[in-house]
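Duplicate of #3305? Posting structure anyway:
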C-alpha cells in the first residue's frame, strides 16, 4: 500500500496489467465521465422543467446564491440555443466508450486521439468559461454545474496525459522527452489539484 501511495499518477498508469497502458488514466476518465453524464442528465431534466415553467423551484435551489434555476434561466446556460447540458448527454457517452474500450485493450489511432483531445479541449475551455460566467456575471452557482466542471477538468487532464505520453499530438522527440519527464514527476496531477483548489477557494470565499 505504501508503495502505491508514493507513486505519481503517471507511474500508476504503468502498474497492474501491462497489456493496458495508462490504466489509471482511463479509469479516471471512466469514473469522471460517468459522474458528468449523471450531472448532465439531471441538468437536462431540470432544463426541461424550467422551459415549461421558468419560475419552477428545483431540488438544488438552496439559496439565491446556490441555485440551479437562477443559472438555468440565464443566456449562458443556453448559449447555443438549447440547454448546455444536452452537450454532456452527447459527449460523455463517447468518453465512456473510449475509456471502456481502452481498458479492454483497444488502441486507438493517433488521429482519433488527437481529434478527441481537440474537441475535449474546447469542452474544457467551455466549462471553465461557464464557471467564470456563473461566478462573476450570473452571481449564483449550480451544484450540478460545478460537478460537471470538476469532472470535465479530470477527463481533460487524463486524456491529455495519455496523449502526451503516447505522443499522439506529434511533439518533437526532445520536447516529448521533457514533457514525459515532467509527467513522471506528477506535474499534471499538481496542475489539476491547483485548478480545483482555486475554484473551491473561489466558491468558499464568495458563497459560503
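Output from current build:
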Amino acid at each position: 500500500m505504501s508503495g502505491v501511495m508514493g507513486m505519481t499518477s503517471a507511474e500508476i498508469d504503468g502498474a497492474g496489467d501491462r497489456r493496458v497502458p495508462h490504466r489509471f488514466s482511463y479509469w479516471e476518465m471512466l469514473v469522471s465521465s460517468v459522474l458528468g453524464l449523471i450531472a448532465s442528465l439531471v441538468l437536462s431534466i431540470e432544463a426541461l422543467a424550467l422551459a415549461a415553467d421558468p419560475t419552477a423551484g428545483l431540488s438544488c435551489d438552496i439559496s439565491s446564491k446556490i441555485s440551479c434555476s437562477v443559472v438555468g434561466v440565464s443566456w449562458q446556460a443556453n448559449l447555443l440555443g438549447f440547454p448546455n447540458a444536452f452537450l454532456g448527454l452527447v459527449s460523455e457517452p463517447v468518453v465512456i466508450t473510449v475509456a471502456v474500450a481502452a481498458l479492454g485493450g483497444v488502441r486507438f489511432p493517433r488521429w482519433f486521439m488527437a481529434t478527441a483531445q481537440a474537441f475535449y479541449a474546447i469542452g474544457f475551455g467551455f466549462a471553465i468559461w461557464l464557471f467564470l460566467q456563473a461566478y462573476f456575471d450570473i452571481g449564483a452557482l449550480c451544484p450540478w454545474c460545478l460537478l460537471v466542471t470538476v469532472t470535465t477538468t479530470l477527463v481533460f487532464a487524463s486524456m491529455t496525459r495519455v496523449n502526451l505520453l503516447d505522443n499522439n499530438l506529434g511533439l518533437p522527440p526532445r520536447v516529448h522527452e521533457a514533457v514525459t519527464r515532467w509527467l513522471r514527476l506528477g506535474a499534471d496531477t499538481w496542475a489539476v489539484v491547483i485548478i480545483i483548489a482555486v475554484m473551491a477557494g473561489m466558491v468558499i470565499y464568495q458563497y459560503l
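Confirmed duplicate; merging threads. Residues 14-207 form a domain with the de novo design (two linked rop proteins) fold (CATH 1.20.1440.130). Confidence is low (pLDDT under 50) at residues 1-8.
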